[in-house]
Design goal:
This protein is α+β, with helices and mostly antiparallel strands. It has eleven helices and ten strands. The structure holds zinc ion.
Length: about 325
């Protein structure tokens, strides 16, 4: 029972970074980013977990949603001066076979808030599917191969795509052997859960701050079923530390070794201008061993790497 409570609280706090949208947002295209909002490298410890949180389980999610009361409309004062999206990626190339060179020659866009369907949306392109503050998944998009982490390297009913389970199992075993045991705090979250989550964080810390610490619905890596928020096995929650990645055995081990098992830290310290979110030392995205090794070698953030490997926006020659 204690574990259940711990997982719930943790899932909610991290929710912030990985999910949610609200009425009115989807109708908009793109709004200018507020650079000031991204210069806040506030530590995770500044965020206090809510007393309740959603899980992929229907009953738990329903209880969580009920606990929040009536939906609260999100106001969007920053959306008044909307601008067009920086780049429109040609959707025709979205179904290119794996292995096709799809390098995008366009420079990485500055962090902006828009809603453009991410081009590599097929589940077969999972390692390069980019979701950020501009590029998003459709509301109804969901993986078809979700499995509980229980028994495959995790220790909870949190769901992940089955393609990651061999590496997840190897990684958690290695962490345990290194006396840095890990636990899965939160994994797959659907669109609806993120609607609630973003709305909650807007209410807690305001719209501007919520944009940098919580993903709007459709923009969360957790909707891919490929993101995991980890914690030290037995807790406490990672955001109770000033820096979980340097102050705990699990956090230190993961920061150094996750890439060997196909996981990359999506929002590293000091990179907010590139990642568009505050530092999240517990949030990892699974991209596969080969891709993770390439990202590690490059020194780039995952968003930079994935942007470079999106389809070229120029139409193909006839
Ligand atoms: Zn997360």
């Amino acid at each position: 029972m204690r574990l259940r409570v711990s997982i719930g609280v943790a899932a909610f706090a991290v929710l912030a970074i990985c999910c949610a949208s609200v009425a009115g947002w989807n109708a908009r295209d793109v709004a200018a980013a507020d650079p000031a909002a991204l210069q806040d490298e506030s530590t995770p410890a500044a965020r206090q977990p809510a007393a309740n949180s959603p899980t992929p389980e229907t009953s738990a999610a329903a209880a969580y949603i009920a606990s929040l009361g009536p939906a609260t409309a999100i106001t969007e004062p920053q959306m008044a001066n909307a601008k067009p999206a920086p780049v429109k990626v040609n959707p025709i190339v979205a179904e290119l076979p794996l292995g096709t060179l799809v390098t995008n020659g366009e420079p990485l866009p500055a962090c902006a808030y828009g809603r453009v369907t991410t081009p590599l949306i097929s589940q077969t392109h999972w390692s390069l599917t980019l979701v950020d503050t501009t590029y998003a998944l459709p509301a109804g998009w969901a993986p078809t191969d979700l499995v509980p982490t229980l028994g495959v390297g995790g220790n909870s009913r949190e769901l992940v795509r089955s393609i990651m389970t061999p590496d997840l199992r190897r990684m958690t075993a290695a962490a345990t052997a290194a006396r840095a045991p890990l636990a899965v705090l939160s994994a797959y979250r659907d669109y609806r859960t993120q609607v609630i989550t973003f709305g909650h964080w807007q209410n807690v810390e305001g719209f501007k701050a919520a944009l940098t610490s919580s993903a709007r619905p459709g923009h969360s890596e957790h909707q891919l079923g490929l993101a995991i928020d980890f914690e030290s096995r037995g807790g406490p929650q990672p955001w109770t530390f000033k820096d979980w990645a340097t102050q705990t055995a699990a956090g230190v081990w993961l920061a150094s070794n996750a890439w060997k098992y196909g996981f990359v830290m999506s929002y590293p310290r000091g990179k907010s201008a590139l990642t568009c979110y505050i530092y999240e030392p517990w949030h990892y995205r699974y991209v596969g061993v080969a891709e993770a090794a390439a990202i590690q070698t490059s020194g780039l953030t995952p968003r930079q790497w994935m942007w470079m490997h999106q389809p070229n926006p120029e139409p193909a020659s006839p």
